[in-house]
Design goal:
alpha+beta, 4 helices, 32% helix
């Protein structure tokens, strides 16, 4: 599983120009379960995604299609982790044992 930290690399007015395309991209990735969660950071300097297990190269290719990245207004930092303890109802996030 991956935590993806999105950081804006351009002023917010430039980021805003791509927000509709980025929102459509996020909805598509979540509908296809390539991303599980997406939200804004507080303070508003970027966002955070939770992505399921997949080959790291596949995630890199997916993130490269983010309109924010395509248009040079944001970058991603990825942390891979293996969830071992999860809250009730989120068992699907833990690897099978």
């Amino acid at each position: 599983m991956f935590i993806v930290n999105v950081t804006y690399t351009a002023p917010l007015d430039e980021v805003e120009a791509w927000r509709p395309a980025h929102g459509d991209w996020l909805k598509q990735q979540i509908a296809q379960r390539r991303l599980l969660v997406a939200g804004r950071q507080v303070p508003f300097v970027g966002g955070v995604y939770l992505a399921p297990r997949m080959p790291a190269g596949e995630l890199d290719r997916l993130l490269a299609t983010d309109p924010y990245v395509v248009h040079g207004v944001a970058g991603h930092a990825v942390v891979e982790f293996t969830p071992h303890l999860v809250a009730e109802g989120l068992e699907v996030l833990a690897p099978e044992r």
